[in-house]
């Protein structure tokens, strides 16, 4: 593993332990050259997923981009990091087990909205406002009206 600080390829694993309820391995590493310490995670990947963007581009699925979107929606909400990781893992597993190698970005957004709705309704509304491109207060009112009517 290459050191993220100095770029040397010779790093040593100092500690390994299960993480994310056994779904990943957390490795604590040290660089023999600069002495820096850093953490890596190893996860099972069932298949390569390509995301089909709305403009027709195809890009590799980026788990960290999904996690960032979740964290932004949940900023300042009472949800701990473990629940966020489980949510991201759940969405990734659903995508990997569907059998498709190309997944439309819209489907990923819908899965994320569905998961956020169950986890935290404020985060759900935040994500929906960006995802559905709300531009006026009436967009929020219509969305909240739908949300109130479905429960």
Low-confidence stretches: none
**Could you tell me the number of beta strands?**
6
Give the % helix: 40-55%
Largest sheet: spatial strand order = 1-2-3
Query: How many domains comprise the coordinates?
Result: 2
Cα Rg: 19 Å
The ordered string of helix (H) and strand (E) elements is: EEEEEHHEHHH
Beta-strand fraction estimate: 15-25%
State the end-to-end CA separation: 49 Å
Q: Tell me, briefly, the overall form.
A: elongated
* Structure class: alpha+beta
The major β-sheet equals: 3 strands, antiparallel
Write down the overall mean pLDDT. Answer: 85
Compute the number of helices.
5
In short:
This is Transcriptional repressor NrdR. With 151 residues, the chain is an alpha+beta fold. The protein is built from five helices and six strands.
Q: How would you describe the overall organization of this protein?
A:
This protein is an alpha+beta fold and 151 residues long. The protein has 2 domains: 1-44; 46-150. The protein has 5 helices and 6 strands. The strands form 2 sheets. The protein has a 3-stranded antiparallel sheet with strand order 1-2-3, with no helix packed on it. The protein is elongated and about 60 Å long. The termini are far apart.
What's the layout of helices and strands?
Elements: E1 11-19, E2 24-31, E3 37-43, E4 50-52, E5 58-60, H1 63-73, H2 81-97, E6 102-104, H3 105-119, H4 121-131, H5 137-150
